[in-house]
Amino acid sequence: MNQSVGGIALELAGVTVWVPSGERLVEDIDWTVRHGETWALLGPNGAGKTTLLSLADTSRFPSAGRVTILGRTMGRVDIWTLRAELGAVNPSTQMPEDLNAEDVVLTGRTGSVHPMWKKYTADDHHRADELMTVMSCQHLRGRQVNGLSQGERGRLRIARSLMSDPELLLLDEPATGLDLMAREELLSAISVIRTHMPQIAIVLVSHHIEELPASTSHALLLRGGRIVSKGPVAQSLTSSHVSACFGGDITIRRHLGRWSAQLADAWSRKE
Ligand SMILES: Nc1ncnc2c1ncn2[C@@H]1O[C@H](COP(=O)(O)OP(=O)(O)OP(=O)(O)O)[C@@H](O)[C@H]1O
């Protein structure tokens, strides 16, 4: 299903998730992600980010409320069909170490761990090549996974997830554990996706605002399972909201599209 920019990709309405012990992991969440938007899902440890992402990738059902993904409401749809239309990227996903990079990307076409050679057409090979260029990993084409760095693997995983032409891309802490250059290469590649796929909706989970790509258009800040702020970054990603979210007097700055955070008293001591 090809959606146009502005249409709803993901909608959570009155969503609460609780566990058998009665603990509420997220509560009263209303959240709409539209095609063409890149959302950052931010919050401290235990805020509920993974819980929200697991609702969006269909691996968890809400205890109350409604989750609608690409026009289909959870509980009324075959989740396997829906899952095939999502791009969900988790840095802990293993790739067969003996495959070369292009083959790994191709497996995204069939959603399989190992290549299903008979199913790939010349167009698939061409698309894999294009996506490796988008994610700045075309030079890795013939290299085996076991020789790739964490940053290279991260870009490859995203290229692989784009092979199914997902309308919704979910990125779980993509920059965690990367060194400075690998992080910067990954974040600029994520921004480039937007240029090539203007209609795709992207949700990216992070603890750190320094790890947000410049293309981030919206943010949802969570604390203790509840929303602190949400909406376009100019309104939601402010010093006061980030301070309330992480607990501290935090000053946010934006420079050349990217964000940085500093404790306000640390800043005043420097001056
Ligand atoms: N199955 C469970 N049973 C009980 N509590 C849980 C369960 N899963 C998660 N929690 C709790 O729910 C809260 C939210 O967890 P979640 O993993 O969504 O947070 P998070 O923002 O992703 O955290 P982190 O940044 O540390 O990954 C945490 O307090 C966590 O301990």
Automatic annotation (TrEMBL):
SMART domains in alphabetical order: AAA
Entry keyword annotation includes Cell membrane: no
Pfam families according to UniProt: ABC_tran
InterPro entries cross-referenced by the UniProt entry: AAA+_ATPase, ABC_transporter-like_ATP-bd, ABC_transpr_CbiO/EcfA_su, Metal_Ion_Import_ABC, P-loop_NTPase
Keyword Transport applies: yes
GO cellular component: membrane
Keyword vocabulary terms for this entry: ATP-binding, Nucleotide-binding, Transport
GO molecular function, a single term: transmembrane transporter activity
Gene3D superfamilies the record matches: P-loop containing nucleotide triphosphate hydrolases (3.40.50.300)
Ranges of residues in domain ABC transporter: 10-249
Family: Belongs to the ABC transporter superfamily.
Protein name: ABC transporter ATP-binding protein
The organism of origin for this protein: Marmoricola endophyticus
